[in-house]
TrEMBL record:
Belongs to the 4-hydroxybenzoyl-CoA thioesterase family. It comes from the Bacteria. This is 4-hydroxybenzoyl-CoA thioesterase. InterPro entries: 4-hydroxybenzoyl-CoA_TE, HotDog_dom_sf. Its EC number is 3.1.2.23. SUPFAM superfamilies: Thioesterase/thiol ester dehydrase-isomerase (SSF54637). It holds the Pfam family 4HBT_2. Keywords: Hydrolase. The keyword Thylakoid does not apply. Transmembrane segments: none annotated.
Length: 136
């Protein structure tokens, strides 16, 4: 489980005085990127990366608005490793009282941005993810 702090900005809020729903995906993406960097040591490069992930599916629930003045963080874990894909489960929680504001489940597919082909999740990635997820 990786925890990513989110810095809320003025422009994250909409006219109903809460965080605009489109922003949530950006928060979840920050959590995914940090998971890939910390757990898989993935260093993304525009020109040289050949092993990354692409989003095939995502489902998001919104339980409680994020209001101005609140602080949130994203919790990210991998809950299943398939052949070419992993399922990631994420939550946005209030830092102060741990209230779950939202959760999201995504299917992330191993993807080579140079060749534009999918690939099987490498054995070393499986081990690194299993080690991360089994330690808690
Ligand atoms: C996702 C795709 C590459 C899949 O292509 P396919 O030809 O179907 O792939 P495959 O047949 O090889 O299937 C590979 C796996 O994907 C799974 N898959 C494919 N499509 C789906 C859908 N729609 N739902 C669930 N699972 C899927 C499939 O079940 C296979 O899983 P395994 O059983 O574990 O092997 C293709 O549909 C595609 O290119 N879609 C567009 C993707 C896209 O543009 N996403 C948005 C941009 S990526 C992004 O925003 C991002 C954010 C944050 C990040 O950290 C990374 C990326």
């Amino acid at each position: 489980m990786i925890i990513t702090p989110i810095q809320l900005r003025w422009s994250d809020f909409d006219i109903l005085r809460h965080v605009y729903n489109g922003r949530y995906q950006e928060f979840y993406d920050a959590g995914k990127s940090e998971y890939f960097e910390l757990v898989l040591d993935m260093q993304l490069s525009w020109t040289t990366t050949t092993e990354g992930f692409i989003t095939a599916q995502t489902t998001t629930n919104y339980y409680s608005p994020i209001e101005f003045g609140q602080s949130v963080e994203v919790f990210t874990r991998v809950e299943n490793i398939g052949n070419k894909s992993v399922v990631m489960f994420q939550q946005i929680r209030d830092v102060v009282n741990a209230e779950v504001k939202s959760d999201s489940r995504s299917v992330m597919v191993g993807y080579n941005p140079q060749s534009k082909e999918t690939f099987e999740i490498p054995e070393n990635w499986r081990k690194l993810i299993e080690t991360e997820e089994n330690q808690k």
